[in-house]
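Hi, can you check this record?
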Amino acid sequence: MFGRRRREERRFDEAATRYQMRQRMLSIGDDYIIENERGEHVFKLDGKALRVRKTIRFEDMDGRELCRIQERMLRVRDSMEIEGPDGNRIAMVHKAMITPLRERWVVNVEGGEDLHAQGNFVDHEYTIERDGTKVAEVSKRWFRVRDTYGVEVSPGENDVLILATTAVIDSMAHPDR
């Protein structure tokens, strides 16, 4: 009974797409590979060194840019923008101004409904929701390997947007890296 219950707690949706990420993945100048649940390399993040602001290219394994993540400074609160390969904004990610009990992040999606992330970002234990419905879950509990965490994305969601959002939150929640 205990083993079955633990497996049920581990996954929020059996049809979800699962990815494996590592902490400290966004040190500028380094590349990072994102794997699917079968251990296949599916995406890579390419941190561009020697830039005034932090820039990360999110690419498929053939090197095609799917989106670009750029730090936006000189605002009331720090934020990072996710742009499409055409340079148009897909989303803007920033920490919520008012956080009474838990940390929260807001993802303002261009031409769509905003996403809200809340939970323990330092320990990689949080959910991403749209209108109160969970669209993704991030958890470190699923792996025994240190510095590794998983991202589960609900069917029908934009995996690239969710993974880019996770990368942004990881980068901004751990600014000392």
